[in-house]
Structure formats: structure tokens, C-alpha cells
Amino acid sequence: MGKGKFLFYFITGTLTGLVIAGFTGSFFASLSTKLFGGPTILRVTVGVFLILLFSYISVKRQYKKYVTEN
Questions:
Q1: How far apart are CA 24 and CA 30, in angstroms?
Q2: Where is the chain membrane-spanning (predicted)?
Q3: Cβ(32)–Cβ(42) under 8 Å?
Q4: Most buried of 26, 49, 50, 53, CB within 10 angstroms?
Q5: What is the rounded end-to-end Cα distance, in angstroms, of the chain?
Q6: Residues 66, 6: contact at Cβ < 8 Å?
């Protein structure tokens, strides 16, 4: 029971993080292109960093919710 619930929270947290980071990452990437005209590798790096950051934050929140329930 507990393990399945944790897996559910982990997956939903990761997906939520990916969606949020996808929107903000593309926004910041287009913004940085307009401002700096930066190379593509810079935009990709920023996008990947934001995806990892938001995934980590949302998984951490979901895990905290999981811990407090049990």
C-alpha cells in the first residue's frame, strides 16, 4: 500500500515538474533569445536545468505529503 502510494506521488510530482518546467523553460528560452540572441546550447542547458529544478521541487513536495500521511 505504502510503496504504491509513494510511486504514485513520485510519478505525479515528476510529471507536474516537467509540465511547469516545460512552460517556464520555453518562455525563458525565447526571452533569452530575444534579449541576448544566445546560442542554442545555452537555451537547452537553461531548459534542462529548469526541468530538473521543478521536478525536484514537486517530487519533494509530494514526498513530504506522503510522509505526513503515513
A1: 10
A2: 7-29, 41-59
A3: yes
A4: 50
A5: 11
A6: yes
Domain boundaries, the chain: 2-69
- Contact status, residue 47 vs residue 17, Cβ threshold 8 Å: no
Q: Which residues does 58 contact at the CB level (< 8 Å), separation at least 6?
A: 13, 14, 16, 17, 20
17-26 per-position pLDDT tens digit: 777 777 776 7
| Contact of 7 with 52, CB cutoff 8 Å | no
User: How many angstroms separate the CA atoms of 13 and 9, rounded?
Assistant: 6
Which of 32, 55, 51 lies closest to 42, judged by CA?
32
Give the helix ranges, DSSP H, for 1-70. 2-36, 40-69
* Cβ atoms of residues 15 and 62 within 8 Å: no
